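Rotation project, supervised by the postdoc (A.L.). Task for the rotation student: set up a whole-complex structure prediction and record inputs and outputs verbatim in this book. Inputs entered:
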Amino acid sequence: MSHEHILSAFDRDLEGVQALLMKMGGMVETSITEAAQALQERDDDLAEKVRAGDRAIDELEVRINEDCARLIALRAPAARDLRIVLSVMKIAASLERSGDFAKNMAKRARVLGQMSAVPGAGGSLRRMSKTVTEMLSHALDAFIQRDADLAEDVRNRDREVDQMYNALFREFLTHMMEDPRNITACMHLHFIAKNIERMGDHATAIAEQVIYLVTGELPEESRPKAESVTTIGVEGS
Amino acid sequence: MSHEHILSAFDRDLEGVQALLMKMGGMVETSITEAAQALQERDDDLAEKVRAGDRAIDELEVRINEDCARLIALRAPAARDLRIVLSVMKIAASLERSGDFAKNMAKRARVLGQMSAVPGAGGSLRRMSKTVTEMLSHALDAFIQRDADLAEDVRNRDREVDQMYNALFREFLTHMMEDPRNITACMHLHFIAKNIERMGDHATAIAEQVIYLVTGELPEESRPKAESVTTIGVEGS
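Outputs recorded:
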C-alpha cells in the first residue's frame, strides 16, 4: 500500500516534468520555424521576437532540472525510473542547445537583412529547418510513448538533413568563388546551415536516448558527430 | 553510526567518479593539444591518433553516467550531494563534446594537409587551443576544490578566446577575399577556430556549474551563447 503510494507519487511527478519538457519542445520548434521564416522574409521584428524568446526557453530548462533533482531526492526512483528522469534532463539540455541555435539563426537573419540576398538560400534553409522541427517533434513523441520504432525513424532522417547541408555547402562555396562580394553573406548562411544540421544532431541524440531507454542498448555508432567534415572532394576524411 | 556509514560510502563513491572525471579531462586536454599540433605540423599520424582516441573518451562518459546513476540509486544522496553528482554528469557531457571538437579538428587537419598552407594559421590556432586547454584544466580543478574564485577566473578568460576568434575570423576573411583559391582551406580553418571557441564555451559552462554549486547562484548572463555572431561591421547584432 505504502509502496503503491510511492509509485504513483513518482508517476505523477514524472508526468509533471514530462509536460514541461513537451512545452519546452513546442517553444523550441516555434523558435526554429520563426527564425527560418524571418530569414526568408527578411523580417526583422520576427527575428527580434525569436531572439528575445530564448530566455523563456533557458528558464524552462533550469526549472526542469530543478524539478528532476527534487524528484530524485524525494522519490528515490529505482534503476529504470531513474534512467527516465535522467533522460528528461538530457533531452532538456538538447532542446536548450537547439533553442540557442534558433536564436543565433535569428541574429544572423538580421545581419543578413542588411546585405544583398543570395538567391534561393532562404527557401532552402527554411526547408531544412522544417525537416529538423519535424524530427524534434517526432523524437519527443517517441520519448513520451517510449516508441523505439518512431525513434529509429528520426535517426534515419538525419541523413536527409546531412544531404541538404552538403548540397547547400557546395552552393555557397560556388557563390563565394564566383564573386568575393558574396563571401560575408555566404559565411553567415553557411553557419545557419551548419546550425540547422546541429539541431538535427540533437533530435537524433534524443531519439537515441529513447532507443536506449526502451531497448537498454545504445544504437551502434551511437553518438551523432559534433559535426561531420565536409570533404569537398577529399574522400575518407 | 549507520548514518555516518552511509555518508562515507557516498563520499567514497563520489571520489571514484570524480577520479574518472579527472581522467576524462586529461584525455580531452591531450586530444586538443595533439590535434592543434597535428594541424600546425601537418602530421597525419598524430591526427589519426586523435581521431581514433575519441572512442575511449566517449566510453568513459558512458561509464561516468552509469556510475553516477548507480550512485544516486544506491546512496540516495540529499539535496547538495545530489547536485554534485548531477554536476559530474553535466561536466562529463561538456568534456565529451570538447573531445568531439578535438576529433573534428584532427579530421580537418588531415584534409588541410592536402592543401597549400595558409601562413600563420596553424600557429594562431595552436595558441588559441592552449588557452582553452588551460581553461578546461582550471575549470576541473575548480570543481574538485569547489573553488568559486578559480571558476570565476576561467569565466573571465573566455573573453580572450572570443577575441582570438574574432581576430582569426577577420584574417581568414581577408585571405578569402584576396584569393578565391584560399576559400576552401579558410572555411576549414574557420570551422576549427569556431570549434576551439566552442570548447572555451564548454570550459566556461563547467566553471559556471562550479559557481552554482559553491554559491547556490547561477552567474548573471548565465549561459555562454551557442555562438556569437561575428558582426563584421554590423553593430548591435
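Student's summary: Confidence is low (pLDDT under 50) at residues 222-228, 230-237 of chain A.
Supervisor addendum: The helical segments of chain A are 2-41, 44-75, 79-112, 121-145, 148-178, 183-215.
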